[in-house]
Design a protein that fits this description.
alpha/beta; Rossmann fold; 11 helices
């Protein structure tokens, strides 16, 4: 029996929290570069009454993305997309960040936008890091938004000589995510569908806990202490925003980005976290 289908990329806590809010009664196709990660999340959700299937996929590969979409179409119309895949600037190279978080996200939004059902919705998880980057100017913003995905990594601003370190690469990727969402929302709208992005701050996940206890642990603890909320966030708090955006209550919201960071970015620009 055919069902409405949700694609979830990135088998982690944030993606699962959103999928649990929105995916009951749907076929949820979970894609992750590590199949064992996808299988773990699929098993957890299936035992909670959801209907999921794990798929190995590589967000840096158009071919792999198309394979994931083909797998999803086998079960029915694609009604929802949750893109929570990505890499960490603490653990990945500049090249990997640009190929996964920047290029891969652009391709995924483009390709799902070609097949999303009327009334469909999507969210992609960006990051507060994109909001820390100074303004790039109208011309570069337009390049990040409109350049064909296969030419994105040829842009001057994304050349290795112009990227200081992995954090800078990550900030550029997340700024690009927000601009691609704006651009793709126009195309998604032609199919009667909506797409938005969410830019979380530090969210408590197993990976984040490793970071808290690692070499940059003091940096994170200082951020928590000096942001208005005084703490990191939870995956369920991100899901609260996603639930609004993906439900009928968010029917007039598309092409937008929502910063959910406990006020850390506000403190970075105008408070005690100012550099």
């Amino acid at each position: 029996m055919k069902k409405n289908v949700m694609i979830l990329t990135g088998a982690g806590q944030i993606g699962m929290a959103i999928a649990r809010r929105m995916g009951y009664g749907m076929k949820i196709v979970i894609g992750d570069k590590r199949r064992d990660n996808a299988e773990t999340i699929a098993e957890t959700m299936n035992k909670a009454g959801f209907d999921t299937v794990p798929v190995e996929m590589d967000l840096s590969s158009r071919e792999s993305i198309l394979g994931l979409i083909d797998s999803a179409k086998h079960y029915g119309e694609i009604q929802m997309l949750i893109n929570a895949a990505g890499v960490s600037p603490s653990q990945a190279s500049i090249e990997t960040i640009l190929h996964v978080d920047l290029y891969g996200t652009a391709v995924l939004l483009e390709e799902v936008g070609k097949v999303i059902a009327e009334g469909g919705t999507g969210v992609t998880i960006s990051s507060q890091s994109g909001h820390r980057l100074p303004a790039l100017g109208t011309e570069i913003d337009e390049q990040l938004a409109m350049t064909p995905a296969e030419d994105l990594l040829k842009l001057d601003i994304l050349q290795p000589a112009n990227i200081r370190d992995t954090l800078h690469a990550y900030q550029l990727a997340k700024r690009c995510n927000v601009k691609r969402v704006m651009s793709e929302s126009v195309r998604w709208g032609e199919r009667g569908a909506r797409i938005n992005s969410i830019s979380p701050g530090i969210i408590v996940t197993p990976l984040a806990i490793d970071e808290f206890n690692g070499p940059r642990g003091d940096f994170y603890k200082n951020m928590f202490a000096k942001c208005p909320a005084g703490r990191p966030g939870t995956a369920d708090e991100v899901a609260n925003v996603a639930e609004l955006l993906m439900s009928e209550r968010g029917a007039f919201i598309t092409g937008s980005d929502f910063l959910i960071d406990g006020g850390a970015t506000a403190s970075y620009f105008y408070g005690p976290l100012r550099p």
